[in-house]
Amino acid sequence: MICPFCNNNETKVVDSRDTNDRKAIRRRRECEKCNGRFSTYEEVEIMRLTVIKKDGQKREYSQDKVRSGIAKAIEKRPINDEKLEKILNDIEYEIHSREKDEITSKEIGRIILKKLKEVDEVAYLRFASVYKSFRSVDSFKKEMERLKT
Fold first, then answer.
1. Average pLDDT of the segment spanning 33-53
2. What is the pLDDT of residue 20?
3. Buried b or exposed e, range 37-55, using 16+ CB within 10 angstroms
4. Given a cut of 70, is residue 47 above it in pLDDT?
5. Which residue, of 48, 49, 122, 127, has the fewest CB within 10 Å?
6. Between 45 and 9, whose confidence is greater?
7. What is the mean pLDDT of residues 117-138?
8. CB 49, CB 103: distance < 8 Å
9. Residues 6+ apart with CB under 8 A from 3
10. Are 147 and 124 in contact (CB under 8 A)?
11. Which pLDDT tens digit goes with each residue over 64-109?
């Protein structure tokens, strides 16, 4: 690792600790030449992921689309930005931990629903109403009953 202060390439790790729920490692480093200290972060490199849509079309995975869908579901709910980031990170981790380069939009939806169900039931129902394409009040009621049990 190159020192950001003097560009020396001899640095040593002084301390390491997990961050982001053990999904990344923060390393505290020290330059052997100027003794300058700095931190680096190491995390899994996310591979390119293709999403297979309902109609069979393939698109590149977009975290922004996931973020947008979740943002609509949690609008005016007691979920702060920090909690939103945790939800997104957990979803991303689960999607990418499958170690495949393709995923269906249906699978992504199930992962999002599972996470929202853990966090906020209203946000879950909002997302489910779009994801599951409720066509009537009865289908919405049935989903509410499933949520209660």
1. 85
2. 66
3. eeeeeeeeeeeebebbeee
4. no
5. 48
6. 9
7. 89
8. yes
9. 9, 11, 31, 33, 34, 36, 38
10. yes
11. 999 999 999 999 999 988 899 889 989 988 988 887 889 999 999 9
* Rounded Cα gap, residues 44 and 1, in angstroms: 18
Q: Tell me whether strands 102-104 and 58-60 are parallel, antiparallel or unpaired.
A: unpaired
Mean pLDDT of the chain: 89
> Which amino acid is residue 15, in one-letter code?
D
Single-letter amino acid, residue 107: E
CA distance linking residue 95 with residue 67, whole number of Å: 14
The predicted model scores a pTM of 0.66
- Compute the distance between CA of residue 109 and CA of residue 124 in angstroms, rounded to an integer: 11
What are the angstrom distances between the C-alpha of 91 and each of 63, 80, 84, 115? 10, 17, 11, 7
